[in-house]
Amino acid sequence: MSAAKVKMRQKKMRNQPASVQYSVSPGDAESSARRTGVDSPVTGEAGDIEDPSSVHPNIERPKNPHPRGGWVRGHQRDGGGYTKEMPKYITAGAFARARAAEVSTMLKAVTKTTGSCHVFGALPKHMRRRAMSHNTKRLPCRLRELANRLREKSLQASSKKKKEEAKGRSRKARRQHGNLLQEFNRRQRKNIWLETHIWHAKRFHMVKRWGYCLGLRPTYKCYRPNYRAMSSHCLLQDLSYYCCIELLGEEVELLASLSQLTSKEAGPTFAAALCLSGQRQGSVVVYRAGQYPTQPLGPVTFLWRPRAQGSTHRQLWIWAHPTIKQDLLPELQTVCQCCEAVLSPVPSAEVVPAPEPQSEPEKNPKAKKMTGTKQKRTCKNDSEPPAKKTLGDGTRSPNTPVTWKSLSNGIVISDLTMEIVRYRLIGPQSHSVLVETMEAATCCNDINKSQPSPLWWPEQCRDKRKMNLHQQQADIFHLLKGIYSTGELPSGTVLGLTVDDPRLTLPTKRVKALPCVKQAQEVGGEEEKRRDLMLRGVPAPYCQSDLWERSVRDNVTDNKLSQKELNRMKSEVLVPGSRLSPTPLQGRVPLLLVHQPGKQVYRGVRIGGLTMSLKHSENKGAAHFPHDYPDCPAGSRFQEEQEAQLLSKFKRYPPAKRPNYIKHGCLAPFCCPWQQLAEEWDLILSEGGRQTQMTMQADAEMMKGERQSGDINATKPLRRVTVLRNRKSLRVLSGWCRPTTSKGQRARSGGSPLDLSAMTRFLSAHGTSLVWVRLSLLSKGKPELHAMVCAPTAEDMKLLGKEPGACGPVEPPHREPFKRLTRRQQKGPRTAAASEKTQAKESDPSAEPKPSTSKGPLPSPDLTFGLWADPLPSVTSHCSRVTLGWVTHGDFSLSAGCGEALGFVSVAGLLHTVLNQPMERRGTLLLRNPTAMHYRFAKVNLEV
Length: 944
What we know:
Structural class: alpha+beta
């Protein structure tokens, strides 16, 4: 028996007397006599114990030579090793003490109850009944009296007032952090949260991108409802993660500096007349200083502050994607000569509260601190400042300077990222949602005007000129009620406005905001103003807003009305759900309403994430950043990340479940080698002559050998691939391709006719360029990511002429050249090396193994089953149809009713294909998905 069991047994037997037993050894006999009080028989002075057999010779010895000690349960054969003779002498005192200990232990064990305090706990378990707890007659007679006494005692105790016990907090409350703001700041060390993060986190799948936590897509099915919202009502998106860069300085200096980043050939620049006045928001693609048309950085939107009377000092906001900021900000500092960082003052921890009448709590003498409850953790010292929000954003650290100043021209650059909240409303009824949700700010009463206030709105109400401007802006805002769709307004229109806190005007029920055109048109005198608004937009003076002032923004942020205080004020309203009157002084918010150009949870608005932003760009047919900008640094980084993500997903599947892209004839299923495509087409058409399909394929094979031998770099300098953004060239190319609508029902008038000389002149300027195209399938099918855009042959065009609904040709299966190598790699390096040595010995035993000298590309040691190894062969002539480009977005379009794809094609390949097509069939291409063998006919469309 182990030591633990021995200790446990000794603990249980400490009150039990030793058993009466006779042992053979003299020591055992003496100890047994002492314990039991029995005198052992003594025959001599030596004290030897007499053996029973010696005293009574007729008694036989026990058969068991090893007698057992201790008590044994039950009848034992042959006495169980014990003597059958009774002791001759006993000591009365010792014997009585031993029996008394046994009796006391037995009484203690009988009278001891279990853990329960009830009387029937003293009964054996087989005699207990549930009814004994409320019916004492079911107990034995000896226990009924005690049970009745306990019952009366419990009734008397229940009649007294019990002490109110504290209600235990829920599990959610117990797990909640004592200081939520500190906990949220800790969780934002790597990825910053937006203002709507907690709302999105409960309803969206969140992703960590570009240094922010953003909502990717909702957790519920919403693809078609979101499309209906975009097409017929309104869809809301939070774009606060976009970076805002502010430029301050003289207008002439700003325009001179920014002109180095843009070009008039690509469209309107920062100096556009309507944008410069502050009436419109502009968009432009910025380049590195003096590097147009190469080295673009990406698209940005900009907004000028309206001019002040008699001042040439201007203010400009540039909104850019987070991936552009790390390249755009140094470029702006270079062209504006702003190299000196300005240290911003440390913000004070104290915030001036707004003067609000607060009712003091009544002193209640009965109110005492409840003990036994878990209280919230509070600051040890009340003088310590409260925890502030984390400074900085996902694109910079908190210690990085945010302001730079130029000593030569006086330009100041400031980083306003995460200081301004930006939302986008998509849909024809966006203006109705704004009109129903927001109301123009109400003026303060005379008492608030006369008293000094730390808030910005009472000071604003004292200026009559500003209040007149606010009233005129409110009148223009009310004119939006009579407009049926936002498409009736000019693109990029800007309106400044100050509204009451939208939380004060939330509806009691969720209702869908709809336009009230008839009621608004019945109001006399507004029809002419509404027509002027739809034709000319908002005048420049009314585009002014207090949102441009940093002091106003800080005041609104620091004195925002908390939700707790707002709920308290609403609870004091006599009629639940009615508007608070008077409006709190903190409840004014400055806004800038900007009309978003393009096709177009309250008040019936649906919320979208990053996925719906991508779908919105697909519906418009516009390029989405950074997905569709392969010539920008951000676009290249995105393509590398996407390739790694798709490749890791492909490798997670078992080999038997992976598509074999080699047999499908797909060289690059996870990326688009744009540089190689442009170089090959530039080499094919370098002579500039009109070639047939067979000649072009022969040139492609020749180019393949030259590319492997490295003759391309030796004969011609490498030119970086670019995207064609020249407006004039795009119009000419669009006319040559006979652009039509998505279903091919209407043809647009083209420019100069396409011939060999015109194509040669065009390619001399844009030979290695890519062009953004929109492809609409002429039959069934759904385009997928990285689908190949190919040129049809003469037989394919004849097939389409005979059968307009034909599906298209079929690509024959390709041979897999790396099949044996991949199998050897799967077997292991030792087996592969042994097989190579065996083959070498069989061919020439004396020769050493030499490297392979095959004409094809040398595969990399890391081969993946079903994928081509680097370097890739010719991408243009790898399949039976010549490749022109790839698809970056593809899906079934609900607006067009057919499959549509967006992507890039080579300008040289597109012109060569269109030149060889008949006039009535120009602009017809082939589309094939990476995992399919069928080609689909598609119509190309170039939108300028």
